[in-house]
Amino acid sequence: MTATAHFTGDANPYGGGDPYADYRTADHPFTHLVDLADRRLGAGVIAANDEFFAERENLLKPEPAHFDPERFGHKGKIMDGWETRRRRGASAARPHPVDEDHDWALIRLGAPGIVRGLVVDTAHFRGNYPQAVSVEAVSLPGSPSPQELLAPDVKWTTLVPRTAVGGHAANGFAVDVERRFTHLRLNQHPDGGIARLRVYGEVAPDPAWLAALGTFDVVALENGGRVEDASDRFYSPATNTIQPGRSHTMDDGWETRRRRDRGNDWIHYHLVEEADIRAVGIDTACLKGNAAGWARLTARDGETGEWTEFLPRTRLQPDTDHRFVLPEAVRANQVRIDIFPDGGISRLRLFGSLTARGAARLAARHAELGG
């Protein structure tokens, strides 16, 4: 467990102008991975011991924390984050909190998986952030209640030991625990405020659930699909194309810059495992003057080998959900979409089922991760 960008101490008081001008941040090596605590995947903050000044739900808002210097309520300054009251000691002779005192919040991951890194973001908490934080994780089946998660027989695994953090900063932590988790417990010592929590990692789906579904979207983020690479991420990330649901805004898809050469843009995907693909959906929702003109799909089975075309270059319409039933199943564990010449798509859906070999490998990996 290593702090990849370590900040400590107060930030300067807000002096006017852009509140992010003196924000302390860095390029964390894991932020290209999926946020397992993304609310679009179903994540939620299901309990907290205290949220006197600001609600726990703010922790998982997808947008950066907002700061309004003039926004006050009857309890004081209203912050865009999770903020607890100030802790006090037991008596006038002992006015300070003891070392064990801390506040906590329970987070249900939207997609269970392997945590590779976390960002505990204290944006705009300049003098009211926690002195230190720690993060624990657990894997429980079903939809456990807060009481069940906090039961004395539940064993939590430490992902981030108690570590000092800084105010108005993106405090990053790399995690090296090769296990599948469903819930986190975020602790702040002894009290204070945290604006956002991001939990970066790899989705590890439940093989029994996918087997029960039979046919499902084998590239969907929630099912364990992922983006391996993309030619362009200028306006928005390629991972948006495998998020749940339809896109409702233009920036919720994938859009590239305007090309001035004769090339084209593309995304390379890994499926959850080897699968037989039988139908395809390419959605350009909300992309009206900037949708891709044409798209082509190719596939391969294995880490090397030839790419085989299974959807030839096909005209796309703006703001349209295109559906294609394939004449025969395509066996693959990787797929690439090429768009011509540039522009974007909002979603890609690949409907199919795991092969026997793919299902066996997924089940073995699930057992290896403690699932």
Structural description of this entry:
- With 371 residues, the chain is mostly beta strands.
- It is built from three helices and 22 strands.
- Strands 1, 2, 3, 7, 8, 9, 10, 11 and 13 form a nine-stranded antiparallel beta sheet that branches. Strands 14, 15, 17, 18, 19, 20 and 22 form a seven-stranded antiparallel beta sheet that branches. Strands 4-5 form a two-stranded antiparallel ribbon.
- A hairpin with a 2-residue loop joins strand 4 and strand 5.
- The longest helix has 13 residues, at 356-368.
- The chain is globular.
**Rg measurement, Å:** 23 Å
Could you name the ranges where pLDDT drops below 50 across 5 or more consecutive residues?
A: none
**Helix coverage percent of residues?**
under 10%
- Tell me the structural class: mainly beta
End-to-end CA span: 22 Å
Reading the helices and strands in chain order gives EEEEEEEEHEEEEEHEEEEEEEEEH
Work out the number of β strands. 22
Broad shape: globular
Beta-strand residue fraction: 35-45%
List the SSEs and their pairings.
Blueprint: E1 2-5, E2 34-35, E3 44-48, E4 72-73, E5 76-77, E6 82-83, E7 103-121, E8 132-138, H1 146-149, E9 157-164, E10 170-174, E11 181-189, E12 193-194, E13 196-203, H2 207-213, E14 216-217, E15 226-230, E16 254-255, E17 265-283, E18 294-300, E19 308-315, E20 321-340, E21 344-345, E22 347-354, H3 356-368
Antiparallel strand pairs: 1-10, 2-13, 3-7, 4-5, 6-12, 7-10, 7-11, 7-13, 8-9, 8-11, 14-22, 15-17, 16-21, 17-20, 17-22, 18-19, 18-20
